[in-house]
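Preliminary data (for renewal application), carboxymethyldethia coenzyme *A complex.
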Amino acid sequence: MTLKKMDHVAIAVENLEEALKIWVDGLGFKFIKEETVPDQQVKVAVLSSESEHIELLEPLTEDSPVAKFLKKRGSGIHHHCYLVDNIEKSLAELKTKGFKLIDEKPKRGVGGCKIAFVHPKSCGGVLIELKEV
Ligand code: CMX
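Predicted structure:
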């Protein structure tokens, strides 16, 4: 399988408006867009620097993955996302290699892209998102 390149790092936040003060007003990231992703129960702010982008994730519901993460660990890096050419093929390859998949089939992420998550227990404690654009 080829992870083509990193797409973004996602950061779990309690409140997007407050987080934007840090990342946009303070650190100088450019605000690209805000979007709700119903499949993942999050509101997402996409930000960019000159060469990369990050996503800030605010949970929409109490029992969503990001809400659980915040309760357990507080605000911080939630996952890394990597681009792949063919997400179904990549998931099948990772499964064959013994990785624990959270999503056996892709879901819809920001911009309607196909996305799927690989469990942090299989990836040295890091939640990995695969994305096909
Ligand atoms: N990174 C690293 N480890 C994580 C983690 C994360 N983001 N989220 C949970 N974990 C760890 C927990 O710390 C816990 O570890 P221990 O057993 O050592 O304590 C373990 O995974 C289980 O965690 P949990 O709190 O019991 O949570 P669940 O098992 O219910 O869910 C997970 C964990 C990863 C399966 C769930 O968060 C998930 O399905 N994630 C994928 C979807 C997602 O995160 N969506 C939001 C982002 C959407 C987007 O960007 O579009």
